[in-house]
Amino acid sequence: xxxxxxxxxPALDLTASSADxxxxxxxxxxxxxxxxxxxxxxxxxxxxxxxxxxHRDGDTIVARTMLGRAQRVVIAGHIDTVPINANLPVRELDxxxxxxxxxxxxxxxxxxxxxxxxxxxxLVAPRVDITWMWYDHEEVAAExxxxxxxxxxxxxxxxxDFAILGEPSNGQVEGGCNGNLRAIVRTTGVRSHSARAWIGxxxxxKAAPILDRLAAYAPQDVEVEGLVYREGLNAVxxxxxxxxxxIPDLCEVEVNYRFAPSRSTDEAVAHVREVFAGFEIExxxxxxxxxxxxxxxxxxxxxxxxxxxxxxxxxxxxxxRFSALGVPxxxxxxxxxxLAHHDDERVPVAQIQAVESGLRAWLSGA
Amino acid sequence: xxxxxxxxxPALDLTASSADxxxxxxxxxxxxxxxxxxxxxxxxxxxxxxxxxxHRDGDTIVARTMLGRAQRVVIAGHIDTVPINANLPVRELDxxxxxxxxxxxxxxxxxxxxxxxxxxxxLVAPRVDITWMWYDHEEVAAExxxxxxxxxxxxxxxxxDFAILGEPSNGQVEGGCNGNLRAIVRTTGVRSHSARAWIGxxxxxKAAPILDRLAAYAPQDVEVEGLVYREGLNAVxxxxxxxxxxIPDLCEVEVNYRFAPSRSTDEAVAHVREVFAGFEIExxxxxxxxxxxxxxxxxxxxxxxxxxxxxxxxxxxxxxRFSALGVPxxxxxxxxxxLAHHDDERVPVAQIQAVESGLRAWLSGA
Lengths: 366, 366
Known about the structure:
The structure is a homodimer.
Chain A lengths: L17 H9 L9 H12 L5 E5 L2 E5 L7 E7 L12 E5 L2 E5 L3 H17 L6 E7 L10 H8 L8 E4 L7 E3 L3 E10 L3 E2 L9 H4 L1 H9 L4 E4 L2 E4 L1 E9 L5 E2 L2 E10 L5 H11 L4 E8 L9 H10 L4 E2 L6 H6 L4 E4 L13 E3 H16 L2
């Protein structure tokens, strides 16, 4: 699908520095579901490059070399951001002598996308074939994710031996990701007027053991292929009661279990059922983790080339999507992941440059 | 304030049976804040009675005899109901051979109002002077209550030696009422992404001891002037969390303490602070109870005349308002209080008749 160019759309100069390119693409707002202007700008810029074959699906752009190399690497980044909160346009800051770019998207994850765009233009003859993917709707419900749609419409574009997601990882290589389960743990009772509480049966009081078990829960650290994944089991929401004078007949505790990629989704469900034995449990969201994938030969070369110490990724990212398709994947991008979604998100320019250099070194075989 | 009569407004026949009158006034819907039509009908009916002096304040009607008797009794009932839920018009049922009136308002408390209206018309020369009060906005926030407004605008109308509220009490005399306190017990923490829960501090987990203390709490039975008041301390609402992937920084448990009328409001607050020691507590609603008031000579005569065994009232009612004004007050009305607000509320016709007979016997000195 080709979308007509909007008049006055900013043109992207892919020969600019990765910092300037970060700034340029941050200043084209692209909150989830409003990525069109940025997708058009990326589309236009990469179609001007004769060494790339370009595909478009909605606001996802795929550009790939077709050099007939023995191996292919997929390098992907989402172009959407969480909502802007008076944190655009980008500002340049000096923080203890370090040059920073501040503003929505600088960390999650337009600095990573900028590096990818720059290298997509520059590397006309990399040592492996490369499939670049810039996609929409990552920050919202999984079923809207551009990669999800692309996997349904053009599964052949995911062919590859290794994948790198540019999600912020402080310029380190973060392997795999934890799995993610959300469940409702529910108590029920009998409603009555609170002036005659003994006629009712208080569902909130019955939730006491649920909170006790959560408060006493000792999360595990699980080693998977040499990386230690830190798990967690937490209440993320609790809700019960309908009025100030009614004994509640329902209390729901939403729990979130982040589990190491060595556990299957079935094992994760079983664990949660065991912890909350005796209570009604409804699993409402379940996504398996991804093993680090660092035993793949390309992954080992990559880690050696960028000179980084591999670490585990705690949050669920789209590496799990590649992992599920049989493509080992890691996260490697500029920016501190704990600043993602933060109104003060900001990225050191030196870290953008380091990721650029690391990727260039490996991809060009220099 | 006199409101113009609406054309087609149903006229009330106060010589009808109390059951027919119950049916007639239930079939004039009067959900709180929409009492105008019924207030107009009552106003018109009582203004036609030359033995009563009538006052109106908003949708509250006061009608009183001015016979110069040594004693005056206030007899009051609210004319509003909770929302209708496909339970009007009134239906007549046979339940195990007992004739019942079913529908919104039959219990809370139009059967009681019907008896009052009938006796107001009939008793032209009672043994005590009577101030009849039919008021609006009882089922909603206390500050909207018609008695509250009347006490501010026309405090002299509350003069009396004894008061009877027609709230449903199964045709028994229920003395006084429990006090009512609502408070928010609050925990706070630190928000973080749930993939990195160890950076945050989970406010919901910290609420575990609040629920533990509620679950373990043993409510007291307190004897006051010979009646036993059953207390209660309950969570009525709980709320915490903002999203499925965020460690919550706030959890609020709303607790409701129903306390015996022998405790002052200060003592009630102190008790709740003691139970939840160590937690932030905000009292959001506080109303003192009312002692039974059965030691007043008129009250003793009344109980003897209607032949009822006095019992404690658990729920807070407007008797506390009279009690606070120095007028001993009891509840006496047809209908099972546990059916109040129930979609299947229904009252035995025999109970309406019994209350009518009881009140008539005492007021006429027969």
